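Subject: for your reference before the review

Hello V.,

The reviewers asked for a structural picture of the protein, and I figured it would be easier to keep everything in one thread rather than splitting it across files. Below is the amino acid sequence we used in the manuscript, unchanged from the supplementary table.
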Amino acid sequence: MPYIPEDERSEIDLLVAELLEELDTLGRANYAITEILQGMAGDLADYHT
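And here is what came back from the structure prediction:
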C-alpha cells in the first residue's frame, strides 16, 4: 500500500465515504428499478395469458 501523508488521509477518507454513499444510493435505485421491471413483466405475462 502506498504511503499517504497524514494531511491527505482525512480528504481521502471523506472521498471514500462519499463514494460508498453514492454506491449505496445506486444499489437502492437498482433494486427499485428491478422491482418495477419484474412487476411490469408479470403484468405483461398476465395480459398475454
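For the response letter, the relevant points are probably these. The mean pLDDT is 90. The two ends are 58 Å apart (CA to CA).

Happy to draft the paragraph if you're swamped.

O.
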